[in-house]
Design a protein that fits this description.
Layout lengths: L20 H27 L12
Length: about 60
């Protein structure tokens, strides 16, 4: 099963001034993937109809 972008957390926070260009680009890519994943998840949850409440059949 493929891992979701959320399962891979970024490493401990560092000052952006001390990060290399490659590290900043990797973080940017991670955040873009996470954003896309969350947008798709939200779209899927909005797409599904709300569950219908069933009336209890008491006699």
């Amino acid at each position: 099963m493929p891992e979701s972008p959320l399962s891979k957390q970024p490493q401990a926070p560092q000052n952006d001034e001390t990060k290399s260009r490659a590290e900043l680009l990797a973080e940017l890519n991670y955040l873009r993937m996470e954003n896309a994943y969350l947008k798709k998840l939200e779209a899927l949850t909005r797409e599904q109809p709300a569950p219908r409440k069933r009336k209890s059949s008491r006699r």
